[in-house]
Amino acid sequence: MTVSRPPAHPTSHGDLGRPARPNGHRGALGQILLASIALWLSMSAGFVPASRAGASQATPEATQGTPVPAVECGVPLETPVPDPVASPVASPVASPVAADDTAARERLAGADIERVSRALVRCLADGDYASAARLASPEYRGILAGSGEPLDPETFIAILEGLTTTAVEIRSVSAIVIGGEDRATAEIVTVVAGQLFRARWSFTLIGPDTGQRRLDEVQPEPNRRWVVSAAGPLDVEAPAGAAAVEVSLAEYSITIDPETASGPDLVLEITNDGEFAHEVVVLRVEDGASVDALLYQSGPALPEGLAFVGQVPVEAGDEARMVLVGLDPGTYALIDLSPDPTGALNLAQGMRASLTIEA
Questions:
Q1: Does 165 share its domain with 145?
Q2: What is the C-alpha separation between 154 and 280, in angstroms, rounded?
Q3: Most Cβ neighbours (<10 Å): which of 32, 141, 160, 244?
Q4: Do residues 17 and 292 lie in contact, with contact meaning Cβ atoms separated by under 8 Å?
Q5: d(CA 99, CA 181)
Q6: CA atoms of 347 and 356, how far apart (whole Å)
Q7: For the segment 32-69, what is each residue's pLDDT rounded down to a tens digit?
Q8: Sign of the torsion angle spanned by Cα atoms 111, 117, 118, 123
Q9: Tell me, what's the pLDDT at 37?
């Protein structure tokens, strides 16, 4: 279905038509929504800070993390540590073990890394940015906040406090690799809203007798503990039986084929045939709601009846793939919230399409 220009007046039941007087330019809501999306994409798809790129490590050995129970943000997992941002919540710390027991140390390190991963995701999903700051290196805080520069806890919290929170869960933590005394990586599979991601996270051990005794310019850490320091994207495999939908982008239209697909899992195969970079934002649209509300409603949350599902940017002439899981039957909108060369939202120019998911 191609929608090159929307109708002049919106109708009910999830219609994707244009309102009579759209703003057309990105307001506060658009900025906050896109910043929130960027937060989760930076966490799930990730980037490798220049300071970490090319760093040499000892030849690593893969180890499986010891299974751990569900982790809530702020639950002390081992010995509590001082909070540089005056939060009473403790962070996961490294499990003590005899120094000469390498195998046991690696097993416990794997469990610690899984705890830290799950705690960081839980804290960000809960909007507890003070605790999240204690679980990420200054470099990774900068990535999460979109600044590109190392951030102290106070600046990190101030940037993220204005963002909306998004449902997120870790599906698995596997392929844990201990590289040397104070470095590790793990393969993390997450679901952000309804989008499946797979990435390799990097971790640094801080505290006494490590190469980094301080997380920030405060007193030395009294306990050895792991923090997330970087993340790099990996290809994600779609669940067996996932339906496929082809999506074509151009100025200014979104075409999808087919218009109806079977859920709950879906793969969007996206091609940008336009001259400019675009994006696909997927929203669930309840009866009576319209994506046009995005053009004229301001505030820190999505308009009533709209729920964020997933997002992916696509450069001009490029392709992208979005894997969505657990979709309920109903109406979904595929829109482009990025601006055109004049600064107006591509959504206002007609970049929208409607997809029906059946049981």
A1: yes
A2: 33
A3: 141
A4: yes
A5: 11
A6: 19
A7: 455 555 555 555 544 332 232 333 333 334 444 444 55
A8: positive
A9: 54
Q: Which two tokens stand for residue 120?
A: 């960081």
Into how many domains does the chain fold?
Answer: 2
Give the three-class secondary structure for 188.
Answer: strand
User: What token pair was written down for 100?
Assistant: 């000469």
pLDDT tens digit sequence for 215-253:
887 788 788 889 999 998 899 999 999 999 999 999 999
Whichever domain contains 98, its CATH number is: 3.10.450
Same domain, 200 and 340: no
* Four-residue CA torsion sign, 33, 38, 41, 42: negative
- Cβ atoms of residues 204 and 217 within 8 Å: no
Element (H, E) at 110: helix 102-126
C-alpha separations of 31 from 142, 148, 336, 339 in Å: 18, 18, 13, 11
Is the CB of residue 65 less than 8 Å from the CB of residue 117?
A: no
| CA atoms of 241 and 267, how far apart (whole Å) | 10
**Residues 133, 85: contact at Cβ < 8 Å?**
yes
Contact (Cβ atoms closer than 8 angstroms) between residue 129 and residue 157: yes
Chain segment 280-333, per-residue pLDDT in tens: 999 999 999 999 999 887 766 789 999 999 999 999 999 999 999 999 999 999
Neighbours of 76 (CB within 10 A): 12
Q: Is the Cβ–Cβ distance between 86 and 132 less than 8 Å?
A: no
For 143-158, what is each residue's pLDDT tens digit? 888 787 999 999 999 9
Alpha-carbon gap, residue 67 to 64, rounded angstroms = 9
Residues 80 and 215 in one domain: yes
Q: Which pair of structure tokens corresponds to residue 314? A: 């696509």
